[in-house]
Specification:
This protein has 351 residues and is α+β, with helices and mostly antiparallel strands. The protein is built from nine helices and 20 strands. 26% of the residues lie in helices and 34% in strands. The strands form six sheets. It has a six-stranded mixed sheet, with helices on both faces. Strands 2-1-4-5 form a four-stranded antiparallel sheet, covered by helices on one side. A three-stranded antiparallel sheet has the order 11-14-20. The two termini are 39 Å apart.
C-alpha cells in the first residue's frame, strides 16, 4: 500500500485560487477525512490526487513516486463517487467485474475477486440483480465492490453517503470503517458532514477557502480547535464564542464577574479583550465552579436532551441540558472555567 504526500500544492482557475499552497502527509493505511463547507476545495484535492484535475503548482506523491504527470489509470487508486456511477444494463456481478475485464484479467481470477468482494460487502445474494433492483445502500456497496476488486494502493471517496437517508448513512459509516480495517489500505474520504468526519477518521483535515486550518485526531480537533473556524465548524450545536473584556485577570459574562485560574490569567495577561470558547454540553457541568442565570430565547427537544438558546455579552449561545430539567423564561446554568478555551480577539487563533 502507500502513503500520499502533497507538497505546496496550488490549484487556480484563471485568477481564482481554489487550493492555496497545501502540504499534507497521509500515512500508509490511514483513514483520513477531508472536511469543510461547500467550496472549500476538499473535492478538488481528491480529484488532483486521482489525476482528474491538473495541479497548477506543487507535487503529489503516491508512495515514493511523483504522480504529477501520471495518467489516472496508472496511479493505482480507486475512486468511489457520490453518484454510485453504476452501469444500469449490467448485473451487480458485471458492474463489480468491469474494471478487471478492462485490464484483461483471466475469467477465473475475475470470478474469484468478484465473489470475495461480494462476500465482504454482503452482496452475494444480489450478484444477478440490476442496479435498479437495489436500495441506495446496496448500490453504494456495489460501487465499493468495484473499487475493492482492483486492490488499489489508495481508496478515494467523494461524499459517498450524501445521497442516502439518515439511517442508511449511519449503517454505511460503520460498514466503510469495518472495510478499512479489513483491507488495511489508505482511505482518503471527503465529506461536509461533521458527524462522518468525527466518527470515521483516524485524522481529520479541516479546510476553509482552500487552506488547511487544522490536521489532527478527532478528539483533539473537537476539544482543542486551532481557531474559531474549526471550533465553530465541528460540533452540533457549534462551540460558543463569547467576547469579553479582561480586567485584572477576570472576564465578564453579562453581569457576572468570572474569576480565572492562575494559569488562565497568565495565558491572557496583557490583553484587553479575549474570546472565550466553551462547548454547549459544558454549559451544564457535572463539577461546576460557577452558576449563572440567563434569559431563554428558545429551546429544542432532542429526545434525552434539550438545546437551550440564549445570549451572553450579545453573543448567541447554546447549552445542551437534560431533557427533564425544568425552566421558564430564565434558566440557571452551571459551568467550570477549566472548560474554557481562549482565542485571540483579532487573529481568532487559540492561545
Amino acid at each position: 500500500m502507500a502513503n500520499v504526500t502533497l507538497k505546496n500544492v496550488v490549484k487556480r482557475y484563471d485568477t481564482k485560487t481554489i487550493i492555496n499552497d497545501i502540504s499534507l502527509e497521509i500515512k500508509d493505511k490511514e483513514f483520513i477525512v477531508l472536511v469543510g463547507s461547500s467550496g472549500c476545495g476538499k473535492s478538488t484535492i481528491l480529484r488532483m490526487i486521482a489525476g482528474l484535475e491538473d495541479i497548477t503548482s506543487g507535487e503529489i506523491y503516491i508512495g515514493d513516486k511523483c504522480v504529477n504527470n501520471v495518467h489516472p489509470k496508472d496511479r493505482d487508486i480507486a475512486f468511489v463517487f457520490q453518484s454510485y456511477a453504476l452501469y444500469p444494463h449490467m448485473s451487480v456481478y458485471e458492474n463489480i467485474a468491469f474494471p478487471l475485464k478492462m485490464r484483461n484479467f483471466k475469467k477465473d481470477e475475475i470470478d474469484r475477486k468478484v465473489k470475495e468482494a461480494a462476500e465482504i460487502l454482503n452482496l452475494t445474494e444480489y450478484l444477478d440483480r440490476r442496479p435498479k433492483q437495489l436500495s441506495g445502500g446496496q448500490r453504494q456497496r456495489v460501487a465499493l465492490g468495484r473499487a475493492i476488486v482492483r486492490n488499489p494502493k489508495v481508496f478515494l471517496m467523494d461524499e459517498p453517503l450524501s445521497n442516502l437517508d439518515a439511517k442508511l448513512r449511519v449503517q454505511m459509516r460503520s460498514e466503510i470503517k469495518k472495510l478499512h480495517e479489513k483491507l488495511q489500505t489508505t482511505f482518503i474520504y471527503v465529506t461536509h458532514d461533521q458527524t462522518e468526519a468525527l466518527t470515521m477518521g483516524d485524522r481529520i483535515v479541516v479546510l476553509d477557502k482552500g487552506v488547511i486550518q487544522q490536521v489532527d485526531e478527532p478528539e483533539k480537533i473537537y476539544y482543542s480547535p486551532a481557531n474559531t473556524f474549526v471550533g465553530g465548524f465541528l460540533g452540533s450545536p457549534s462551540m460558543n464564542f463569547i467576547k469579553s473584556k479582561v480586567e485584572n485577570g477576570t472576564i465578564k459574562f453579562n453581569d457576572y464577574i468570572i474569576n480565572l485560574s492562575e494559569p488562565q490569567k497568565q495565558l491572557i495577561q496583557n490583553r484587553e479583550e479575549i474570546i472565550v470558547g466553551i462547548r454547549p454540553e459544558k454549559m451544564e457541568s457535572l463539577s461546576p465552579n460557577y452558576e449563572f442565570m440567563v434569559g431563554v430565547d428558545i429551546s429544542e427537544m432532542l429526545g434525552s436532551e434539550k438545546i437551550v438558546y440564549f445570549n451572553i455579552n450579545n453573543a448567541k449561545c447554546s447549552a445542551k441540558i437534560d431533557a427533564q430539567k425544568e425552566f421558564g423564561k430564565e434558566i440557571t446554568l452551571n459551568f467550570n472555567t477549566n472548560d474554557f478555551l481562549f482565542f485571540d480577539a483579532e487573529t481568532l487563533n487559540k492561545l
